[in-house]
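Slide 14.
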Amino acid sequence: MKPIGTPVRRWELVALVVMLLVAAGLRLGAPGITEFKRDEANLSRLALDLARGRDLPLLGIRSSVDVPNPPVSVYLFALPYALDDTPLLSTLFVGALNVIAVALAWWLARRYYGPLAALVAGALYAAAPWAVIYSRKIWAQDLLPPFVAATVFTGLLGFGEGKRWARWLHWPLLALTVQIHFGAFTLIPLSLLMLVLWWQTIDRRDLVIGLGIAALTMLPALAGAYRDDLLTLDTIRDGLGGTDHEQTISTTALDYARLTIAGTDIHSLAGEQQFQHYLDTVPDVYPLFDLVPLGAALAAGLLVVRAVRAGRARSSPDVVLVAWLVVPVLAFTWEWTEVAPHYMIPLMPAAYILCGAGAAALRDAVRSPRVRRALVAGGALLLAVIVSLQVILFVELLRFLDDHHTPGGFGVPLHDLLDVRQAVLDHQPDDVIVVSEGEIAPYDQEPAVWELLLGAVPDSRFVDGTRTAVIPVDAALELVAWTPALRTCADPGCWEDVDGVQVFELRPGGERYIVRPAAAGAWADDLDGIEPVRFANGAHLTGYALRADSVLLAWQLDGPAALDYQAFVHALDADGQRIAQADRTAWPGRYWRAGDTLYLWFDLVLPPDAVTLRAGMYTTDGVTYHNVETLDAQGAYLGQWADIPLPR
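Slide 15: predicted structure.
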């Protein structure tokens, strides 16, 4: 296989610079208008731990099929996090890598199909809406495009052109790409196809060296999988689809491939409530974008026919390019797992290169110079219109997402979160309590995000304000991710007309964050005190309050606990029989501090004949239960719970 040997002319360089500037502007511009949610935060936390020398992760975050990813994406993100502990530089890092992907697509198209193909491929890829969207977030799959393009390119150079260095490099690149995200496994058939097409170029020593280096890249993941007992048949089977998803043949993958290539359905980022509002603000030109996947499909058919008729299967990359486009769709047509749109990321460069190759082939097939000139002029106009509209619509989408609350769609823009972060850090607090609808990082959204963003604070703790409150014994700062469901801050009374409170109203009608000194709220005013009951885990039950739909218990804490506990409340009748009960997880023991007051709400409606509350804590492994003992002042055993007589 021989490349096109014509030198790159000045107009091509100018066009390339313009394309890369467009690609960079869309991918790197306004980096604060990006999502930063749980997955991004958890991946960032691992990368920051590595960059700061606190840990060497052997696995990444869990994938969508509930199997941990290899740590390659963590290692890559550790590079920008070594320079900046905020997500901004890492977000730009993703964008920069994807600009390189555009350059690689241009280069591949130019090398094998000429200047026109390179112009079409580069322009379409630079402005493709979903290609841009998948370039603007700290997401493992957003790292794929440059590695995908480099993997295929080195395969063509190494096997098709016989370049030895490329043959060595191809296999490690393939291994790294698949480890970045499992969806890239669709590249493996491409590598095998290139081996079959150009078997005569294979040198066993080169193959052994390449595969040996590839195996070395997998050692951390294999060590992590062995450590966590993930190399079992059950785990592998569950990772390949499990038992819950209905396995069937469908057009879902084809539909996702079409919209990914075209750049349509980006209105989904506006969420179910706002998408129509967004569509009303932009011209209805999306049907025009469907010409792009149509062009890629027609070009693929043309190249296959040409390869078969002219015997070009081994003298050009035609068959490889078509397989690059088709294999990801075929791999998920049988839905052995739930199909997601981002599984189509690996085929994007192929689609735009095929459009370029098809345009060049169509031009070359026209004999008449006049018709050829008219065809090129018309195609250039159409290309300019599509690219221009895609740029305009994407910029408008960013503006819309930044200005509108988009429930079910785009998350809180990163720059808003960083503004809140800076307000917290300006207080130089030693202790920050984050109140939200969750309290466990890495599983709950707000704790995962703020654990990363508040890493510079000596002590950050997280409270589920829908059912828990904590009043620290020493001065502390509260960061409240407000929702109406918070029992600790259910209405504006918790921040209006209060000294030292900062309220951040983010997108209109949407997210609100409150920064305030930690203090007890009105919900703690009517507690009935009791003689403190000491529990062996360092918690002292000190009071209670009865609500129409709940019971509130107050505890004093001695300090951090080694375990996490469950808490319970039972309602007893006059005969001591249990007539109602509520169990819940208590506040995680690692957050406990000496002298803090802890409030736990239990969703329990007391029956009219309840005369006693029985309260306590216990641990469980799901099979056995162990109550936390109560102790007297000398530390001697008293019992396994506290009984509180109710007023008659």
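Speaker note: The CA atoms of residues 558 and 594 lie 4 Å apart.
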